[in-house]
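Collaborator request, handled under Task 6.
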Amino acid sequence: MMSAAKFAMCVLALLLAAMTPAFGQGQPAGPIQVKPGAEAGKQSSQQTARFVIPVDVVTLPVAVSDHSNNLVLDLTQKDFQVFEDGKPQPIIHFDQGGDPLAIVLVLETSSRVAPLLPAVQKTGIIFTQMVMAATGEAAVIGYNDQVDVLRPMTTDSDAVLKTIEHVQPGLSGARLYDALNRAEDILEKEPSERRRVIVVMGEKNDKGSETKLGQVLRRAQLDNTSIYTIGLSSTAAEFRKAPERSRPVETGPPGTYPMNPPTGTMETPSTVDEQMGNENSVSFLPLIAWLVQHGANAVGKNALVLASTATGGLHEGTFKDASMQRAMNAIGNDLHGDYLLAYRPPSNTAYGYHNIEVRVAEPSLKIRTRPGYFIAPPTE
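Structure tokens returned to the collaborator:
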């Protein structure tokens, strides 16, 4: 005969089993904005793992331009189609430059770009008026050998302007990826109705970060963050540095863009700008997918172009002082002229990289948007 204690334990076990819900029941659908390292779901015994994600909207900034690179600003929702992995997705939100912005301005303050900082400071008024505009809020981060929050998130554009105008140089490191990671920490706390944006002014390469570029890009895609970049050249900084009596000014390898000019040409502002700003972003798409999946770095590539291409942002190369101001103005125009689309992906989606494509009714128009997102299995 079973004792009373054993009988009670059996009854309790049966009650607990009956109360336990099946995996995935009652969970909201959608595949993005999972925090890095968080479990998106449990591994299935099926050949293709499936999962349920707690946030269900993918947001797409979409810039549309004509053959002359002029922004096209008169399209409507019916002109757009969105595809995920080749399958059409209903557009559930459509706007044009109307969502309030939460922006983190990330400035390189290393000694290598110190001669350029006066020109960087002059972009402050354009950032506050054209990028923040009337409804935006912004924080400012400086990075060299360390990463510093120079101004916490605020709607006070005068305080942001003062911070930019008084930025000071530090040591020779350039912890770009750590600075981007810190910016993502700040934006993660922002309310969902604000569009998340990072604007970077710095060199194309990282020096000294613990964070990997692929980790930054994966997180930005999951958090619906757009990264806009302005490339600084320490070759340009060398031209502005007072020459030393003992040796000539160097304009070669120490620079941010230490590659040789095109064959048969001299290194001039125009050729440097070409190398900095006119790279074919389409050719980066397979590399971006690989970086995001593996959380790795891309040695020898322009990290700023990769970051912008991976998140649907704009990259601007610079060489002359005035072009920094033009670049910041272009970013402001782009941000407030973008179309903002959103869709709800399938509620039961496989782990892995998912490609995104946006099409418009007029095939001759050029489209810039984020190329996809990646969901890692919980074992990664």
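The cover message to the collaborator said: "Residues 11-55, 244-278 have pLDDT under 50 and may be disordered. The chain is about 30% helix and 25% strand. Please let us know whether this matches your experimental observations."
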